[in-house]
Design a protein that fits this description.
heterodimer; A: about 350 residues; alpha/beta; Glutathione S-transferase Yfyf (Class Pi), Chain A, domain 2; Rossmann fold; four-stranded parallel beta sheet; 8 strands; about 10% strand; B: about 350 residues; FAD/NAD(P)-binding domain; five-stranded parallel beta sheet; 20 strands
């Protein structure tokens, strides 16, 4: 496999900018995994020394509304143009969306403009009429995970930890999951192509882990806008995620990592749901398989405090994983807020085993 | 003594062999330039031929009678023609090792190559070892066994038609014509070897246009129990025990389908060979998909728009072996007509 995938990946090497970025945050990640975006900014600014704009004026890309048929494409293009106009205000031209859905939206809009100049002209007019603003198409659009992938070797040098089980010395076995809109819309805009993207594989392997190639690796995480947003369809969402868990279970993964807000959320939260619905978990200890964002994975290996990374907000508890890697943490700080006050423990699930509420 | 007319035949596959023999019979001096170190072209990849399971070696032996030791035919191996051009009413072929050949007419019989299945990334060829091509199946069958990479007899095998044919994604809109019947043949061969195993064929349409093809298709179902599923495979992956998991849509049942098989055979399509494309372009006779373009598909199919340059076999389009051999003879007749006119 290695020889072929090397050859294959050669065809999907994209250009990733190296500095002066405009960061487009995700609408939902800040609620689900609130430490991830802060960790990304910290990694770029403090560790890699990059210039990255975190603009308080930024706004939605319309992704969820667009994929739910609520927002028409003309509106999406105009809203995207406004974000690009904000980037122009800051004098940078490399655009980094945090969200995979947004990454798909920005690429779709720019591709539309490239292929249909009349749409580009129309959008310019709409934006001008609505806001009086002008915009420029970014020189480079890379997903935030592309940036971490690009600098994986530099980051490795700063990492005190590796994706290695400290008790056995063996690589941790990792399930990686790529958001559909990262590579399935525009394979050439991904790192590694549509079928076997390398963006997370590259990080995992560089940092000492072993990637699991399980049968449902490329299957949907279960988010799928229409599966989840329409309440009547939510059974499909759980069913899809369940299919993935059943497929990966025999490989005994140590954890799952994803580069998409929805994927990370659903693969984490649905483990709770399935455990509560059916009493079923997919690990040996009935605690579930920890699910990390790639920033959390990088942050942990770089020695960031797990609670500053927001890992206490995960449904599946991460402590067993931290213990495997040998990352120190203080259980007493887990539910202490920024103010220093104890926030209280969350309600304990019926079936999913946790390390709190004992 | 009358000067013998000379013809260059580029490619010693079935079309080239057939054309050369016919020309030699007309006392024309033929030089056959073959890029490989042997003759036969793609026929060498086959064990048995559809629709009658005739041994491909026997057909080849029959084909080369009066070819190898024919005093009017000179076969030159390991000669890759890199340039073919007309100069002063002569056809000049330059080879990669710097040799030059000259003749009164030339026949392009550069044949086809098979589609590189790695381009269909989702099918996992080159990644999952139990995903093989129809050419590899044929080689295994020649050795008498179809075995998985683990060395076991496949209990379940699937064949997928139209890999690299009728596929917009890879830019090949055309039908390769031979894959449907080849899948039927290979499925029967598999079932004859291992009657207890199961064989499935995934297809878009089953195109059984040749004589006895439809009968063979029926026999594969009635006698051998081959199961046909209308739908393309969208994704393959490996299970923990190295089987191949398939995802497809059964379009007759209107349902998605997931199946695990021990081996998946990709029925790879026919593409223009590299030499076909290069030499056609040099002479402005390049047609769609890199094949050579004939002067008129109905009335002058062996002629090209270049006087004295003729086309034989599957350098024009996908053809069966039967058609290819006949087309080689037909090209020879066209060459003779031309040479008579240019006396």
């Amino acid at each position: 496999m290695e020889e072929f995938t090397k050859k294959y990946w050669k065809d999907y090497q994209k250009e990733i900018a190296d500095d002066n970025f405009y960061y487009e945050r995700s609408c939902i990640r800040q609620s689900f995994f609130p430490g991830s975006e802060a960790a990304f900014l910290k990694i770029l600014r403090d560790i890699l020394g990059k210039n990255i704009i975190d603009d308080p004026n930024q706004h939605t890309c319309t992704g969820i509304g667009y994929h739910s048929d609520i927002v028409p494409f003309d509106t999406t293009m105009t809203v995207v143009a406004r974000i690009f106009s904000l980037m122009k205000d800051h004098g940078v031209n490399n655009f980094i969306p945090s969200c995979v859905t947004s990454f798909g939206i920005f690429n779709e809009v720019v591709e539309t403009w490239n292929h249909s100049p009349e749409e580009y002209e129309k959008t310019k007019l709409f934006l001008k009429q609505a806001t009086g603003r002008d915009f420029e198409i970014p020189q480079n659009i890379s997903h935030a995970s592309d940036i971490i992938y690009k600098y994986r070797k530099e980051l490795k040098e700063k990492m005190p930890y590796r994706l290695v089980n400290r008790n056995t010395g063996k690589p941790l076995r990792v399930v990686e999951h790529i958001g559909c809109h990262y590579s399935k819309l525009f394979a050439k805009k991904s790192e590694g192509g549509m079928e076997f993207p390398k963006v997370l594989v590259g990080m995992i392997e560089e940092w000492g882990g072993e990637v699991i190639d399980y049968p449902e690796r490329r299957h949907c995480c279960g988010f799928g806008f229409r599966q989840y947003l329409v309440m009547a369809n939510r059974g499909y969402s759980v069913a899809n995620t369940k299919k993935k868990f059943e497929s990966m279970q025999p490989y005994k993964p140590d954890f799952i990592v994803a580069n998409c807000p929805g994927c990370t959320m659903f693969m984490d939260r649905w483990q709770y749901t399935i455990a509560e619905m059916e009493g079923k978990t997919y690990d040996d200890n009935k605690m579930g398989i920890p699910v990390l964002t790639y920033e959390e994975m990088a942050g942990l290996l770089l020695g960031f405090n797990p609670w500053d990374l927001g890992l206490q907000l995960h449904q599946v508890q991460v402590e067993p994983l931290l213990d495997k890697i040998g990352i120190p943490y203080d259980p007493k700080d887990k539910y202490v807020g920024k103010s220093g006050n104890f926030l209280g423990e969350p309600e304990k699930p019926e079936n999913l085993v946790t390390v709190y509420g004992k | 003594m009358e000067n013998k007319k000379t013809v260059l035949v580029i490619g010693a596959g079935p079309a080239g062999i057939s054309a050369a023999k016919s020309l030699a019979n007309d006392n024309i001096s033929v030089t056959v330039l073959e890029k490989e170190d042997t003759f036969g072209g793609n026929i060498n990849n086959w064990a048995k031929l559809f629709p009658n399971f005739k041994d491909a070696g026997e057909v080849k032996s029959s084909l080369i009678q009066n070819f190898v030791n024919n005093q009017n035919i000179k076969i030159v191996y390991n000669k890759k023609v890199t340039e073919l051009k007309k100069h002063n009413q002569k056809w000049i072929a330059n080879t990669s090792d710097g040799e030059v050949f000259e003749s009164d007419a030339a026949i392009l019989s550069t044949g086809f190559k098979v589609f590189d299945a790695q381009y269909k990334e989702e099918l996992g060829y080159g990644i999952y070892p139990n995903v093989i091509t129809s050419v590899e199946f044929e080689k295994m069958y020649k050795n008498g066994k179809i075995l998985t990479v683990q060395g076991s007899v496949p209990k379940k095998i699937a064949f997928l038609n139209c890999v690299g044919s009728r596929d917009e994604k890879v830019g090949n809109h055309y039908c390769s014509r031979i894959c449907c019947i080849a899948a039927v043949k290979q499925a029967i061969e598999f079932k004859e070897l291992y009657p207890q195993s199961e064989a499935f064929i995934f297809y878009m349409d089953i195109r059984m246009a040749g004589q006895f093809y439809e009968e063979l298709y029926r026999k594969s179902q009635e006698k051998h129990g081959v199961v046909y599923i209308r739908g393309r495979i969208s994704e393959t992956s490996s299970t923990i025990d190295k089987k191949v998991q398939i995802k497809a849509e059964d379009t007759l049942a209107a349902t998605p389908l997931r199946m695990t098989v021990d081996m998946l055979v990709l029925m790879i399509g026919v593409e223009a060979s590299k030499s076909t494309t290069i030499l056609s372009k040099q002479n402005n006779i390049d047609g769609p998909y890199g094949f050579a373009k004939s002067k008129d598909i109905h009335t002058a199919d062996n002629y090209s728009n270049e006087n004295g340059l003729f086309l034989a076999g599957s350098c024009k389009r996908p053809l069966t072996l039967t058609e290819t051999i006949a087309d080689g003879k037909s090209a020879a007749i066209s060459v003779v007509e031309y040479l008579k006119q240019t006396k």
